[in-house]
Amino acid sequence: MTIDFSKIPTPCYLIEEELLRKNLSLIKLVKEKAGVDIILAFKGFSMWKAFPIVKEYISGAAASGAYEARLAADEMNTLAHTFSPAFQHSDFNVVLENSSHITFNSLSQLRQFMPEIKKFHRKISVGIRVNPEFSEVETELYNPCAPGSRLGILAEQLGDELPEGVEGFHFHTLCESSAVDLEKTLAAFEAKFGKYLTQLKWVNMGGVI
Questions:
Q1: Radius of gyration of the chain, Cα coordinates, nearest whole angstrom
Q2: 24, 49, 109, 185: which is deepest, by most CB within 10 A?
Q3: 82 vs 107: CA distance, rounded Å
Q4: What is the pLDDT of residues 70-119, one digit of tens each?
């Protein structure tokens, strides 16, 4: 198909639907063959005008706070898997209303907000972000396993039993990474946190870009 760019108003973003569907089809194929759920990270793609197409291939979304959780509900008609380094009481009710899963970055945040989750009118699955202390991301700014990082709970901070109410783990140590990097990270994750897997309902493995 030939596109007459002179007829397209500027400035704007232009997406070729055929190529978008090709990429989404590949994602759906991986989802089906691997037997996993793949959810859309708004940090990587938040062009909500394309969500009607995206929803044909994947149904879930990952949000980084109250506003993105609302975006999932309003434009994808789905509840979000929401993670934030720190939640605030001022907008946590918005997070509750628009999330199916909420992941906390620290045990103190978990303790702080768990009472609100318990009294919420709908079941919400709770997780914690863990730090496998392994990443091959070259830029330290984007490396959650860099020295002094506060992104994720260390294995040494957990006892033999998970905190009450925790059903899932989330790790995200990848940036512009490959499937090989994910394989290595998964091995490090299993070495550090494998003993908890029988206590979990889900593991969120972040993303590979």
A1: 19
A2: 185
A3: 16
A4: 999 999 999 999 999 999 999 999 999 999 999 999 999 999 999 999 99
> What DSSP letter does each residue of the chain carry, written as one string?
----GGGS-SS-----HHHHHHHHHHHHHHHHHHT---EEETTT---GGGHHHHTTT--EEEESSHHHHHHHHHHS-S-EEEE-SS--TTTHHHHHHTEEEEEESSHHHHHHHHHHHHTSSS--EEEEEB--S----S-GGG-TTSTT--SSB-GGGS-SSPPTTEEEEE----SS--HHHHHHHHHHHHHHHGGGGGG-SEEE-----
Question: What is the token pair recorded at 104?
Answer: 């906390």
CB 92 within 8 A of CB 104: no
CA distances in angstroms from 66 to 11, 33, 173, 188, listed in the order given: 29, 32, 23, 31
**CB contact at 8 A, 105 and 84:** yes
| Mean model confidence pLDDT for the chain | 92
* pTM reported for the whole predicted model: 0.92
With CA atoms as reference, report the closest residue to 38 among 48, 28, 46, 23: 28
Q: How far apart are CA 48 and CA 56, in angstroms?
A: 14
CB count within 10 Å of CB 76 equals: 21
Neighbours of 186 (CB within 10 A): 15
| 134 burial type by CB count under 10 A (0-12 exposed, 13-18 middle, 19+ buried) | middle
Q: Is the dihedral of CA 80, 196, 129, 44 positive or negative?
A: negative
What pLDDT sits at residue 209?
42
